[in-house]
């Protein structure tokens, strides 16, 4: 039997609603979804990826799921293995099937099935210090499904997550726990406010003792998600968390440094003016200049993204960036080889130019810079071309409002504006 025939025949109900066994492969394995033994024999065969693909299609109909109710634990165990140790497309199938197993709609006839799935989840939560499957499973579910996060946020299981003592977990288990917290905070609007603050406190508890790069990356990214909402940054600044991150910054890895830099810039956007002053005392904008000199592309890129956020949130910051030499540093970095960083620099300079005083705008009256913008028009990146055209509009508006450009620059400027085809 060839693979196409296998895909077509693997999942088929008879008229009496029983599943018809199918024989396939050189080993003549027979699969019958009502018989767990044949199901797991099939998973262990050379055809497991095809079977998983068929199972994915089969599970799209929620009414098919009842056939698994008698062997949910074993099926989930197999899917967890596939979601970790196989090729990406197999991992994706496995994670999507996991979500389908746990998310049976409330208005369906699947109440018993859904309860069985969550009963298994609860049973896993009783052995957190010895069994990694609970957080391994939750991290997969939360990564794939907002609906499951919403369900858990209103469920006693959330207290189990928040009350977990991270120091009793093995390092492998701690990685899944940090990932679970990250995915919870990535859609933090589903969380009650008091739960959010407890999750943030738990993240700092982990950062206090764990130096593993993966764990630190997930923890700092979680805080990035949390502080991206300006309504929450005030509590973050006043609880001395900023100082903790400042202490962590020199000793952590480049990815976490990048996350921390964006957290700092999120704090710059705090709507409470007195706290804006506090954050600038803790992290003077001039300190970002040294971050720009970091050898790591990740740190440099995230510094520029952080500066963009600072510029966007506070026009006064543009003057500080000018006086501290940060704008000059950005100009000097603009033609570095890393394209992603170059794009972010141009975006950052645009937001600075739009709010610049006449004194600061003189930095943008630069023939080499204008010619470089013209070159970027042929880059082929639509987003970057839009930024370049925004520069052309800005130059045109300044010129039409009576701003006096350097006479030696006028020809280059008009050529650049014409090349952008602003009509």
Layout: helices, strands, pairs:
Elements: H1 3-9, E1 22-24, E2 29-31, H2 36-43, H3 48-59, H4 72-85, H5 88-102, H6 111-124, H7 133-144, H8 146-153, H9 157-163, H10 171-186, H11 193-209, H12 213-227, H13 230-238, H14 241-248, H15 254-268, H16 273-282, H17 287-292, H18 297-313, H19 316-323, H20 326-333, H21 339-354, H22 358-361, H23 367-376, H24 382-400, H25 410-419
Antiparallel strand pairs: 1-2
Highlighted features:
ARM-type_fold; disordered N terminus; 423 residues; 1% strand; nuclear import signal receptor activity; nuclear localization sequence binding; Leucine-rich Repeat Variant; elongated
In summary, what is this structure?
The chain has 423 residues and is mostly helical. It is built from 25 helices and two strands.
How does this structure look, described?
- This protein has 3 domains: 27-85, no CATH class; 133-283, Leucine-rich Repeat Variant, CATH 1.25.10; 294-422, Leucine-rich Repeat Variant.
- A two-stranded antiparallel sheet has the order 1-2.
- A hairpin with a 4-residue loop joins strand 1 (22-24) and strand 2.
- The longest helix has 19 residues, at 382-400.
- The protein has helices spanning 3-9, 36-43, 48-59, 72-85, 88-102, 111-124, 133-144, 146-153, 157-163, 171-186, 193-209, 213-227, 230-238, 241-248, 254-268, 273-282, 287-292, 297-313, 316-323, 326-333, 339-354, 358-361, 367-376, 382-400, 410-419; strands at 22-24, 29-31.
- It has 25 helices and 2 strands.
- The chain is mostly helical and 423 residues long.
């Amino acid at each position: 039997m060839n693979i196409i025939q296998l895909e077509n025949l693997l999942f088929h109900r008879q008229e009496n609603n029983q599943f018809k066994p199918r024989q396939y492969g050189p080993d003549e394995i027979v699969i019958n979804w009502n018989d767990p033994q044949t199901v797991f024999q099939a998973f262990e065969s050379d055809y497991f990826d095809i079977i998983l693909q068929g199972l994915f299609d089969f599970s799209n109909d929620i009414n098919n799921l009842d056939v698994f109710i008698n062997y949910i634990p074993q099926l989930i165990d197999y899917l967890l293995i596939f979601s970790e140790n196989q090729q990406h497309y197999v991992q994706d199938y496995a994670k999507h099937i996991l979500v389908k197993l746990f998310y049976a709609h409330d208005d369906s006839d699947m109440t018993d099935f859904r309860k069985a799935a969550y009963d298994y989840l609860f049973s896993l939560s009783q052995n957190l210090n010895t069994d990694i499957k609970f957080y391994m499973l939750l991290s997969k579910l939360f990564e794939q499904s907002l609906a499951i996060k919403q369900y858990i946020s209103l469920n006693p299981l959330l207290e189990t997550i928040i009350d977990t003592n991270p120091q009793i977990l093995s390092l492998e288990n701690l990685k899944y726990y940090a990932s679970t917290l990250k995915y919870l905070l990535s859609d933090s609007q589903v969380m009650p406010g008091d739960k959010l603050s407890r999750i943030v406190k738990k993240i700092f508890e982990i950062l206090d003792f764990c130096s593993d790069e993966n764990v630190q990356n997930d923890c700092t990214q979680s805080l990035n998600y949390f502080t991206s909402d300006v309504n929450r940054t005030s509590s973050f600044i006043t609880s001395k968390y900023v100082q903790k991150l400042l202490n962590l910054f020199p000793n952590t890895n480049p990815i976490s440094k990048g996350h921390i830099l964006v957290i700092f810039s999120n704090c710059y956007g705090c709507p409470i003016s007195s706290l804006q002053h506090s954050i600038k005392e803790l992290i003077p904008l001039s300190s970002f200049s040294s971050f720009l000199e970091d050898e790591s592309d990740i740190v440099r890129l995230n510094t520029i993204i952080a500066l963009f956020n600072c510029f966007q949130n506070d026009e006064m910051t543009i003057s500080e960036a000018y006086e501290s030499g940060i704008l000059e540093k950005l100009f000097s970095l603009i033609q570095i080889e890393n394209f992603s960083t170059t794009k972010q620099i141009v975006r950052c300079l645009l937001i600075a130019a739009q709010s610049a005083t006449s004194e600061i705008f003189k930095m943008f009256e630069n023939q080499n810079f204008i010619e470089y913008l013209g070159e970027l028009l042929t880059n082929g990146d639509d987003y970057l071309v839009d930024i370049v055209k925004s520069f052309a509009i800005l130059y045109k508006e300044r010129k039409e409002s009576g701003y006096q450009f350097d006479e030696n620059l006028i020809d280059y400027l008009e050529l650049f504006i014409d090349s952008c085809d602003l009509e």
